[in-house]
Amino acid sequence: MIYRAEEVRERFARRGLAFDPTVEEIVRGILEAVREEGDAALNRLSLDLDGHPVEEIPKRAWREAYEDLDPDLRDALETAKERIEAFYREEARGGFLRAEEGGVLGQLVRPLARVGVYVPGGSAPLLSTLLMTVVPAKVAGVREVIVASPPRVHPGILAAAWVAGADRLFAMGGAQAIAALAYGTGRVPRVDKIVGPGNAYVVAAKRLVYGVVGLDGLAGPTETLIVADGSASPRLLAADLLAQAEHGPDSEPWLLSPDLPLLERVEAELYRQLQDLPRAEIAKKALERGGLVLTRDLEEALELANLYAPEHLCLALADPLPWLGRVENAGGVFLGEGSPEALGDYIAGPSHVMPTSGTARFQGGVAVRDFLKVIPVVGLSEGAARELAKKGALLARAEGLEGHARSLDLRR
Ligand SMILES: NC(=O)c1ccc[n+]([C@@H]2O[C@H](COP(=O)([O-])OP(=O)(O)OC[C@H]3O[C@@H](n4cnc5c(N)ncnc54)[C@H](O)[C@@H]3O)[C@@H](O)[C@H]2O)c1
Ligand SMILES: N[C@H](CO)Cc1c[nH]c[nH+]1
Ligand SMILES: [Zn+2]
Fold first, then answer.
1. What does the record give as the active site (predicted)?
2. Which of 223, 246, 267, 311 is the catalytic position?
3. How many CA atoms lie within 13 A of 317 on its CB side?
4. How many A from CA of 46 to the centre of ligand 1?
5. In CA terms, which of 4, 20, 114, 266 is 20 to 30 Å from 272?
């Protein structure tokens, strides 16, 4: 379906994370049950929803899965892990302590102690998501990373846990896994923060436990928005749209271009490539949620892309670099046809866990900083404290907080 820009503008501008009240009600029930009854509810729910009780899978089984893996796949996992690790080692994470008139001001930067990572496994065993979350957590220095993934956990996920250096892994999925990580049960320890994407149940559960634990964000169904000019290949564009459409019927693939013949050729290519795509039925539904959009020019395409704030923004342009300055809202940017999003999904370097549903307006993707906390340090000299106390007391009295003002008066 080819839309005109005016037909999608309002929809793009209004986008935001919407919650299905039915899902939310189910999830509230699950959270409450796990909080109240712990492991008994966790097991019951896991049996009801996933046909299997919760179990912890020991490291020995991860290593065996790794050793049994096809050597080429093992090598691909190792390369992906090394590239993610190298990318996140670059991220600044040092604190500082600055001398200030005889005293010090600074920031301590500390890794979180225990983090829960959710690795989706309902529709596909996303072993790459394990690497994309556990590796930056370990680079940040998190002591204990606990993985949750729906039973029966795919051997590829176990092997990825081995390669990434996770600490524990529980076969548990959905809202019950989020509840177990947030509240803790007899078997599952309570974590400080939950990181990772998931379906509507997982995302609703994460939102509802925020405050009991920290969150990386609410990454849900994947989406991609490609801006293309006449230089782009219809075959590659269609393949890139289908790559993300196959995630789920709720994925959203969009292509924006001022070139109508290009859009028409991509439409024909999509039908052609769908013929033998194993997940064609899923991809077709996703294609109905997204679409092809004819824009006036590339400026309008970029303006709409910023309104939409996609998880992935792909610039399939002859010369993409000069357009980077126009990008305001995106989870990640992919420059040119040689940098397809599917490479970002697996092996380019940055984590593929990126903000969806327009949350890229205010949130970036998973990175080392998600696993750190910043603690300010104030150590003023007597002279500096005396100097600042007078103005501080004035501010306190302006707020009507006499107790604060008196505390400061005593320093003068
Ligand atoms: N944005 C990102 O960074 C990113 C990355 C990877 C994946 N994703 C998205 O993650 C999602 C993964 O979803 P998934 O479904 O494949 O796996 P999932 O692991 O998130 O969900 C499966 C779980 O959902 C629960 N569930 C299913 N139906 C239920 C019901 N009726 N009631 C209660 N609970 C129910 C089950 O307990 C099951 O274990 C996809 O939408 C994918 O696009 C996003
Ligand atoms: N595109 C998904 C969300 O960014 C990540 C993924 C995992 N495996 C394949 N793709
Ligand atoms: Zn993907």
1. 311-312
2. 311
3. 22
4. 14
5. 4
Cα 120 to ligand 1 centroid, rounded to whole Å: 6
Question: CA-to-CA distance for 224 and 227, rounded, in angstroms?
Answer: 10
> Which residue's CA is minimally distant from atom 6 of ligand 2?
345
Cα separation, 153 vs 307, in Å, equals 38
Active site residue 154: no
Q: Is the CB of 133 under 6 A from ligand 2?
A: no
- Name the closest-CA residue to atom 5, ligand 2: 345
Distance CA 150, CA 50 (A): 7
Interface ipTM above 0.90: yes
32: annotated active-site residue: no
Average pLDDT, the chain: 96
Q: What's this model's pTM, rounded to 2 decimal places?
A: 0.94
Buried b / exposed e across 72-82, counting CB within 10 Å, b at 16+? eebeebeebbe
The confidence score (pLDDT) of residue 390 equals 96
Do 117 and 196 meet the contact criterion of CB atoms below 8 Å apart? yes
Give residues whose Cβ lies within 5 Å of ion ligand 3: 345
Q: Residue 311 in contact with residue 221, Cβ under 8 Å?
A: no
pLDDT band at 51 (very low <50, low <70, confident <90, very high): very high
Is 356 exposed, middle or buried, given 0-12, 13-18 or 19+ CB atoms closer than 10 A?
A: buried
